[in-house]
From TrEMBL:
This is MaoC family dehydratase. Gene3D superfamilies: Hotdog Thioesterase. It comes from Mycobacterium botniense. SUPFAM superfamilies: Thioesterase/thiol ester dehydrase-isomerase (SSF54637). Belongs to the enoyl-CoA hydratase/isomerase family. Residues 23-140 form the MaoC-like domain. InterPro entries: HotDog_dom_sf, MaoC-like_dom, MCH/BMMD. Signal peptide: none annotated. It comes from the Bacteria. Pfam families: MaoC_dehydratas.
Length: 167
């Protein structure tokens, strides 16, 4: 019920409209996501990535410098972006336009927790699609120790706030 005893009101979780993004704002996405062996093996096999560093414990254990399996970097990237969805783009994104400057300065391992943060670096109204704008995000993933494990720049097409008259 509402605070005044009237009819209940609905609040739908959503991302931000184009107008709500401000350049330079940093969003900390919580909770983080602890990566399991099952996550890594499932993603790796679903995507047909047969890299032994992800699948073969004996092979990976014998190789310096890590001596253990690495989490598939594409899973790390996917999870990094996924952690931002509820706070930034749930229901308001039209499309991902592209990724650039993707880097993995340190690996993730089974049992590590990935935390994500995003800074809005640019935005502009679309010249070809009225009612939509292009927002650029700089995503950073950190492990539970605060080490940066992934970075990516992502351009997205985002809806502008619908007008109150139903448009």
């Amino acid at each position: 019920m509402s605070g005044t005893g009237g009819e209940p009101r609905d609040i739908v979780q959503r991302g931000l409209w184009y107008e709500e993004f401000d350049i330079g704002v940093r969003y900390l996405h919580r909770p983080g996501r602890t990566i399991t062996e099952a996550d890594n093996v499932l993603f790796t096999t679903l995507t047909m990535n047969t890299q032994a560093l992800h699948l073969d414990a004996a092979f990976a254990d014998a190789l310096p410098p890590f001596h253990q399996r690495l989490v598939n970097s594409m899973f790390t990237l996917s999870t990094l972006v996924g952690l931002s969805v509820a706070q930034l783009t749930q229901g308001t994104i039209v499309a991902n336009l592209g990724f650039s400057e993707i880097a993995f300065p340190k690996p993730l391992f089974h049992g590590d927790t990935l935390y994500a943060e995003t800074v809005v670096t640019e935005k502009r109204e679309s010249r070809s699609r009225p009612g939509e704008g292009i927002v650029t995000f700089a995503h950073t993933g950190r492990n539970q120790h605060g080490d940066i494990v992934a970075t990516a720049i992502r351009k997205t097409l985002v809806r502008m706030r619908p007008d109150r008259d139903g448009g």
